[in-house]
């Protein structure tokens, strides 16, 4: 039976992929309803799935691609944020931050949202001894964008957002999400995305060497260290 | 009276374009002020667009069409 995830806990939670995604949507809705002005979730799934926005369902070969991935143990799940397919597995840690923002100020810009999540992440990596962490695009990586967290130009964290109006006023609620591969070979996850690409008849393929898992940069990383990242999002 | 539904101007910096990822109401549908009617994606961000007034929806830009800031994507007849 699903147990609700604890909001703003500094302990890494272990839901299923579906439960984690639902919890993120619930967190955004809490901000929209005025129950929270800031909150986060840190979770690592205990199962696997290939997660994508629902618009991919409109692709002609989607049903076959979905069935093919499900047979291989990678069921397709849908998320509320933008972007393209991203694998979720116990090797991945997710951090989702939801925050109320005033429209008309700089907070209304998508760039602000990405920096709100990504700058503390880079700072945290620096604190752990990673000297060359920054935000930027990574050509050849899956679900690329302008605001990945990179280590030496390789993608560590993919980021995406959703914006929704707060009920009864002009403020907006932001959900910004980051997914970080912590352990394992990035080639395994890249292969899952490339399998989907083949299934939908898209010739684009992604390159494993453009990604990095955290333990390649920090071999002794322990998930308990995540609390020092989450502390950076307070206030 | 006709009221346009536009892509917000202050959502992102620069001249990048977005794409309409979903219409949540059919063309010709009746909506109430504040109802979610569409989603636009830009920079891997999904932005929910609400009806500014109540009325009957006429869609001008279809799903997967590219849109710039300030583009009128639909109108509401009240």
UniProtKB/TrEMBL annotation, chain A:
Xref: PROSITE patterns: BPL_LPL_CATALYTIC
Signal peptide: none
Keyword line: Ligase
UniProt-listed Pfam families: LplA-B_cat
Superkingdom as given in the UniProt entry: Bacteria
MF (Gene Ontology): ligase activity
Domain BPL/LPL catalytic: from-to ranges: 33-225
Name of the protein this chain belongs to: Lipoate-protein ligase A
The organism's taxonomic lineage, starting at the top: Bacteria, Pseudomonadati, Pseudomonadota, Gammaproteobacteria, Oceanospirillales
Automatic annotation (TrEMBL), chain B:
Key words, A-Z: Lipoyl
Cofactor: (R)-lipoate
Keyword field contains Metal-binding: no
Source organism, top-level taxon: Bacteria
Record Gene3D superfamilies: 2.40.50.100
Lipoyl-binding domain span: 2-77
Spans traversing the lipid bilayer: none
Pfam families: Biotin_lipoyl
Name of the featured protein: Biotin-requiring enzyme
Organism, as annotated: Halomonas saccharevitans
Organism classification: Bacteria, Pseudomonadati, Pseudomonadota, Gammaproteobacteria, Oceanospirillales
């Amino acid at each position: 039976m699903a147990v609700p995830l604890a909001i703003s806990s500094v302990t890494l939670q272990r839901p299923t992929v579906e439960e984690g995604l639902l919890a993120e949507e619930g967190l955004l809705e809490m901000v929209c309803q005025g129950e929270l002005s800031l909150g986060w979730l840190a979770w690592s799934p205990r199962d696997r799935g290939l997660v994508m926005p629902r618009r991919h369902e409109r692709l002609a070969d989607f049903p076959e691609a979905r069935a093919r991935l499900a047979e291989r143990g990678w069921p397709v799940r849908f998320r509320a944020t933008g972007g393209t397919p991203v694998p979720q597995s116990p090797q991945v840690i997710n951090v989702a931050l939801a925050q109320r923002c005033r429209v008309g100020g700089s907070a209304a810009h998508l760039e602000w949202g990405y920096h709100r999540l990504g700058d503390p992440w880079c700072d945290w990596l620096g604190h752990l001894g990673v000297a060359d962490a920054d935000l930027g695009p990574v050509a050849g990586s899956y679900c690329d964008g302008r605001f990945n967290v990179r280590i030496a130009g390789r993608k560590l964290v993919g980021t995406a957002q959703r914006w929704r109006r707060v009920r009864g006023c002009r403020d907006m609620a932001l959900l910004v999400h980051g997914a970080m591969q912590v352990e394992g070979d990035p080639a395994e996850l890249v292969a899952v995305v490339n399998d989907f690409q083949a299934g939908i008849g898209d010739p684009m393929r992604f390159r494993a060497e453009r990604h990095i898992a955290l333990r390649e940069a920090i071999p002794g990383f322990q998930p308990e260290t995540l609390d020092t990242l989450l502390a950076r999002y307070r206030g | 009276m006709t009221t346009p539904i536009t892509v917000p101007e202050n959502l992102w910096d620069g001249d990048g374009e977005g794409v309409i990822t979903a219409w949540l109401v059919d063309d010709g549908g009746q909506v109430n002020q504040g109802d979610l009617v569409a989603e636009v994606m830009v920079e891997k961000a999904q932005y929910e667009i609400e009806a500014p007034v109540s009325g009957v929806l006429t869609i001008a830009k279809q799903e997967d069409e590219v849109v710039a800031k300030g583009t009128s994507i639909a109108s509401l007849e009240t």
